[in-house]
TrEMBL record:
This is UBA domain-containing protein. Residues 75-96 are annotated as: Disordered. Residues 332-372 form the UBA domain. PROSITE patterns: UBA. It comes from Symbiodinium pilosum. The lineage of its organism: Eukaryota, Sar, Alveolata, Dinophyceae, Suessiales. SUPFAM superfamilies: Clavaminate synthase-like, UBA-like. Residues 75-87 have a biased composition (Basic and acidic residues). Gene3D superfamilies: DNA helicase RuvA subunit, C-terminal domain.
Amino acid sequence: MRSRQPRFCDVTYLRGYARQQGLYEEIVATVDWEQDKVWRVRKQEGQDNWHLRTVKECPGMGRGFCGRSLQKVPDDTHQIGPRDAHQAAKTRPHGNWQCSMAQDGCQKRQRDSALQEPYWWCSKCSWYCCDSCVKRMPDKATSKQVAHWRPGASPKLDALVADVVRDFNLPNPFQAGYTIKMNWYPDALSRVSPHRHDNWTLLVSLGAPRVLSVDRAQVLMEDGDLILFGTQSHGVPEMPSAAGGRMSLVFMFSPDDAVGAAAEARAAAGGTAARRAGEVPPGLPLPRCTLRPEELQLAALSMQASEWESGYEDSDWWAEPAAEGEAEAKNEVDTAALDAICAMGFSREHARAALRATDGDADQAVSLILSGA
């Protein structure tokens, strides 16, 4: 995998950019949300084989919920992350246990039953589960809901996306293929741990005020506030005093000086220039993209047709065909990298968009898909 050095991005903050009565409530009500799961990227030791794994939590040994992640035995993979060991665990398999779940099809109901590998255990509780029963356990969920922008699902969301693209000189999302997604924090205890990725992020916060951590700074994001940042660590901590839910509309894209210049110009000008669809500050170039209503409608119809023919998860409605049969270089992605990410369980649409946003870096593309704020 090739590495790249993303350009630095100053944090730019616009207060009240998209504040509008009832906007949060309408978008939340019209979007088809999904429960976010805890995913881990695993790599086979000494090889380039990757896969995704959800997390199963130890329920405890009758003394209350434990919650620690179950470990697979044997396991020739290691977890990918900045603080993770780059070698597989060396836990030796043994048969001196019985499955604590013991459901239909259990592989080890009794301690003297033959050992079946792999199995799962909690090192603190000495809680064991066979591979058959562990598949019936629920995946560990995060405390937030997620959704990707789907044109046509919410007209007010479509209008907000179009205004952000125009106001901050973003490229056409249907051609550039960067990520536009949403995270919904339904209550004050919903959170996401600090993380970072090698792309820039433009984020609009809607709903109840919540703190967004950006490196060591704690930024109070109120309804309609907008922030631009780069590779800084960021997260959303719990905020017990918050009243109500909050969602973030997130644009993730390759470092782009034109976007940074537009954000800085609007923040410096203030007034209506710092408001949604406001006046254009002096010296700011014409926007690269103005999403027209008919273009959004066409995208919605194309997506519906793709869903009808092959299912949304495998549809390629996001990408436009190259003009005159000539492929646009920026829309090209490495087929091997695309297939490798899809083999982890991601859709081709999300994998292709992430690869474009990270200039083909598969490691960063996986991180981008899994990350959010």
